[in-house]
Amino acid sequence: MTLIFIRMMRHYLASQKLLCVLFAVSILIEIGYAVAAPLSLKYLVDFAFVPKDAQMFILILSLLIIGSLFNIGAGASGDYTLAKLSGRLLHMLRTELFTHMQKQSLDFFVRYRVGDITTRFNSDLSTIERVIGATFPFGLKEGVTVIVGLCLLFSLEWRLALAVLLGSSLLFIGPRLLQQRAETASRTVKEAEADFAGTIDESLKGHKTIKGLHLQDLLLEKANMQIQSLFTLGLRKSIMNSLMERIPMTALMVINAIMIGFGGWLIFQDKLSIGEFVAFFTLFLSVGQSVFHLSFLIPNIIESGVSFERVNQVLEDRPAVAEADHPVDIPSISSHIRMDEVTFGYADGPDILKHASLYIPAGSFAAFVGPSGSGKSTALQLLQRFYDPRQGRVTIDDLDLKQISEKSLREQMGIVFQDTFLFNVTVKENIMLGNRNLTEVDMVAAAKAANMHETIMSWPQGYDTPILQEGASLSGGQRQRLSIARTLLRKPSILLLDEVTSALDPATEADINRTLEQLKGNTTIVSVTHRLSSIVHADLIFVYEDGQVVEVGSHEELLSREGLYREMWEKQAGFSLSQDGLHARVDVNRLGKIPIFEGMAQELLLHLTTLLTTETYERGHTIMREGDEGDKFYIIARGSVEVRKQLLDENRRVAVLQDGDHFGEIALLKNIPRTASIIAIEPTVLLSLRREWFLELTASYPQLLEVVERTIVNRMK
Ligand SMILES: Nc1ncnc2c1ncn2[C@@H]1O[C@H](COP(=O)(O)OP(=O)(O)OP(=O)(O)O)[C@@H](O)[C@H]1O
């Protein structure tokens, strides 16, 4: 801890030499006065009071007054330089910490939770601020006062000073014995605080899921345990700290007794004058007071040690994706992208991409498709160099991404994520994002291309409308379109899109797809999507399966191959949606391909299509809850849902279902509790079939019940 503290202070103080010297001179004057004032008593008593020498009295008094004036001046200058020094130091530390965080690669934000980092910024930096601005300089002053004072005490009467010093050893042995435990207690409290902050953060960010899955009790139980542990650990820390404070006080009382007893004896033996004893006693009190102050500072310093350690830990965290020593800038032209035998996995986890290779020609529109979890988004993240591959390489215009400067890479690339983050500023500021080279005309053009201009203009404050709660005041589609607008505005030469149209209604999706089509040629576009209808015009479609690219080609080529792409296409085909996405239909042939309806007569299927009802769900909405009574069967016409199950004490995602998938078929036959929860992870349109309507149908066609029962039994085997 001490080492980290010294290293950090040296690092930050190196550029503040003048202020340091000024501060050192000021405190030296103050210390000089603090020890000289008690020493003057020796001369006052022995040379002025006892012989009643008025001249000597006036001389000593005048010197004391002059010294006091100097002391006041030094005090004021010390306070000023200290305020400036500590302010600058903290300014540097905050800036460095924040800048350092911006340079981190993605794994950093996975490793540290939001609560943990904010605690380091708030609580730890406040502790450091207190130490730099008060505890440390005060401690330094008191420490030097003690040393100089002790030297003077020795020069006054070495035997008495030795006795006092021996007694003083008690002051240091006691705290030393407890220091380790006090440090551990302080660290565990900080960790418990970070855990609790993490839970608060989780409960705020995930409130929809928590409510939806009725996890409040679970969360409350977790929070109660953390609060209880905060109490227990806090109590232990307080006890340790108060013990650390009490030990020096007790030691001081013992020393006092030694001094009066032994000092008195020396006076009786004529080995010490009264003036010397008074000076010794007063100086000792002054030194004792400094020691007493130091004893209060010890717990503070220990606590700050943990804070220094925690802040330093972040500062020493080197980005996993580091900039090359001599990075190269890439020109702003459309570029070709290559992945050569790339293998990659997150942190120490298994390989997610396995020897994946691909080539995307400059100016083309490429799409990554494949089942959920096959590695499409991961591949896109590698193209952005959010991570480096374990093996193989990713290149742009034959240049390894590791060689390219991050600035030029980000300038050439436009990225639209599935999760849009908006800042709490106006719409205009969210689109422009501080880029002074862009004009309002460009901004409006980009907003029009993203199909957002009309919506913005319909708001009373137009482009000056403030965004609240990071965009929670807007719909998912509006947030997504704003994010597309701000990316298009920058006219990137490579445009990477991760499920960007998933939150949009069919009409807006078609508009955005048209805009993207027009960018082809000048911009290389890579789009990750699970909705195949949006990429039928792509130049190249890469089909991922289990971390590998298993098929490549155009839509027509892939359809003719009868492979995974065709299978996925057939699953998604046969659904039609109204332009606003509020009404869905499925055609008879598609319905007949759902296993439980397989082999049914056309007439029956036709009847079934009339019984289907459209249901729409916003992202985060719980469609069904594990354990609830089930009375409907669902088909996903458009959207994406996650399947979650309570496994032991953990609520885990077990699958993701998308366009064309179905769930809840048992509910058509039996009234048994749902075996999993289903939550929409993007705006989702479902076709549902109620059990009572289905059973009514089976009354007229008993053979239907038999077919469905047989299929369900087979599926459950
Ligand atoms: N940050 C991460 N840390 C650890 N594992 C991750 C991380 N991100 C993704 N994964 C895992 O990597 C695998 C591939 O995920 P990825 O998001 O690339 O798949 P995907 O094909 O895009 O699927 P989806 O369409 O559902 O997003 C999954 O098993 C996922 O759980």
TrEMBL record:
Membrane topology: Multi-pass membrane protein
Ranges where the ABC transmembrane type-1 domain occurs: 21-303
Domain Cyclic nucleotide-binding: 596-697
SMART domains tied to this protein: AAA, cNMP
Membrane spanning residue stretches: 56-82, 131-155, 247-268, 274-298
Entry keyword set: Activator, ATP-binding, Cell membrane, Membrane, Nucleotide-binding, Transmembrane, Transmembrane helix, Transport
Domain of life: Bacteria
Keyword Cytoplasm: no
Keyword Kinase: no
Gene Ontology annotations for the cellular component aspect, listed alphabetically: plasma membrane
Occurrences of domain ABC transporter (ranges): 337-571
GO MF term set: ABC-type oligopeptide transporter activity; ATP binding; ATP hydrolysis activity
Subcellular location per the Swiss-Prot or TrEMBL entry: Cell membrane
Coiled coil: none
InterPro entries given in the database record: AAA+_ATPase, ABC1_TM_dom, ABC1_TM_sf, ABC_transporter-like_ATP-bd, ABC_transporter-like_CS, cNMP-bd_CS, cNMP-bd_dom, cNMP-bd_dom_sf
PANTHER family, alphabetized: ATP-BINDING CASSETTE SUB-FAMILY B MEMBER 10, MITOCHONDRIAL, ATP-DEPENDENT PERMEASE MDL1, MITOCHONDRIAL
The name this protein goes by in its record: ATP-binding cassette domain-containing protein
Originating organism: Paenibacillus foliorum
